[in-house]
Amino acid sequence: MKKLNLMLGLLGWMAFASVQAADRTWELKSPDGQLKMEIRVGEQLTYSLSRGVQTLVAPSPVGLILEKETVGENAKVSKARRRTRVEEHIVSPHHRVPSFDVVYNELNLKLKGGHGIIFRAYNEGVAYRFYTTSRTPLIIKDEIAVMNFDADYQTYRAYSTASPKNDRYCMAFQNIYTKATLKNADKDNIAFLPVTVDYGNGVKATLLESDLESYPGMFIQGDGKTCALRGTFARYPSAFKTFPPRAMKRVTGRADYIAKVEGTRSYPWRIWAVTEKDTQMPVNNLVYALASPNRIGDCSWIKTGKVAWEWWNDWGLFGVDFKAGINMQTYKHYIDFAAENRLEFVVLDEGWYNPKNGDMLTVIPELDLEELVRYGKSKGVDLILWTVFNVLDDQLEEACKKYSAMGISGFKVDFLDRDDQTAVEMAYRIAEATAKYKLTLDLHGFYKPTGMERTYPNIINYESVFGMEEVKWSTVEKDMMEYDVTMPYIRMMAGPVDYTPGAMRNASKKDFKPIYYNPMSQGTRCHQLAAYVVHDSPLTMLADNPSIYRKEKECTDFIASIPNKGIEETRILQGTLGESIVTARRVGTSWYVGGLTDWTPREVTLDFAFLGEGTYEVVLFRDGINADEQAQDYQKEVFTVTSSSKKAIRMASGGGFALTIKKQ
Q1: Domain with 177 in it
Q2: What angle do CA 10, 15, 16 make, to 5 degrees?
Q3: What is the pLDDT of residues 586-641, one digit of tens each?
Q4: What is the value of pTM for the model shown?
Q5: Residues 542 and 620 in one domain
Q6: Which residues contact 614 (CB under 8 A, 6 or more apart)?
Q7: Does residue 414 carry a catalytic annotation?
Q8: Catalytic residue flag (residue 38)
Q9: Marked catalytic residue, from 198, 442, 453, 469
């Protein structure tokens, strides 16, 4: 154990060159032969990863530290089993595609003592997971996950936003990406997944995890000196305290281990998604593919769509003959607006129950919730209720039963703000109970997606994104434009995003300022429109208020026309991580294309070769000639194209474009 502790302290050590003769080595290649893992079992279990002649991950130790043994230390293999060219067809409701196929090769190493590890190699990346086979429960003291590299590569990391004085593992999983080399890491902070390593020449590897169940999520830390990273995990909570103003339970003490588990089980998949071009990143499906399959059965009742939302715009109606706020007239007004624009939902965000009381079974006197549900259904609009995770968990059966019977569509659940074992277990408990009562979930203040929406398809969106709410209090130094063309490549590999776009007040870089009650967006109007295409988002907010949307009817009609369900195909037509992205989605014979840039103006040439035969009508919203200065400036064009057409489109600073393509 002393030897193991020394190894963990020296993150970057590469002392795997001299291998004892007793060590055994296995090789596992992807079906196309491009990726290769080399697994070595002996004094320490290690793996390496290469693509062709290029080393992506140098020999790196992995293991599970139990109370009486370390799985992977002085290991011996009792049985090795291979599976080759395993093909799976995966049905993926509400995903970026309705289904997809994967193929992989697998190596299962059962170690003496009964525990083991499984490695898989896909064409899109590789993964491994441990398993244990004890007859009695186990305490997992820690997990060894060291990642060594052979050079000081560039990385993209989103760090914890918790104060150094507080628990670094407790925060909302929302931050911009820090671009720095492995050696220039912030050694005093931890980064949450996904984390991307850039090898140059377009090749990147992104670290993700999947099937995170009854186990803490992985964070990443460097030492600021070596070309190595280390996985680190929140300790198991030992004490909680409830805090105002939302009756939130927070961790106030932690044990000296990371998990208490059943003795026989599998552990989360550790994934390296490998891409040769940036355009492959947003459409990598490994997290979804490696998650546990659907546990709820029939999904036909699950409803997705667009949402009229009041919190971002602070219930900011004007030009009406009533006092706007959390009252019946305001919510009926939002329902009317949703119905006018064929939006499927209205969210009742914080305030419909008294959050200080922590009782979501008691609605405030100003609202007759049953009447709002009835009124909404008469207009074809369903309601979603906001709540706090532990508040819902404390009243789970009662709340699900009451609001399902009332006709509520689902819950927007907020402020989990951690992913230790008890937090993950709460998320699964809530997902199972809400599915039982046919309620959907939009998970906010939540850790990065780990494929849970495959297991519980009633989960229809996640936050874990530095989204539009951040402009209410963040200065322009928090570069949302750069984030907007970085996040789709990295964060969306993990799963969909509830970014909440749709601002109709738009500002150039020099004009932007944070305003809480009347917020504006960074970037142009067309940047906002394009987000409705670029983002994987089965549940998408219209963040601004109905009064403004009615004044901007042309843009509102366009947003309402862009589908976020029934997507049959998703392609990334062009783009570069951190600079720009152009995404195309198909529904039937119609296509929807959105493009985004950072603060650098760019011109892209859109090639319509992806279209089928025939002639198509295009409706294009692009940045106006003065959009660099007046961010709300846009121009609408209507024209026809065929598959041989091309179109040059200029994006202003912080700009974008969006278009619909309909077959004539």
Answers
A1: 2-290
A2: 130
A3: 999 999 999 999 999 999 999 999 999 999 999 999 999 999 999 999 999 999 99
A4: 0.95
A5: no
A6: 642, 663, 664
A7: yes
A8: no
A9: 469
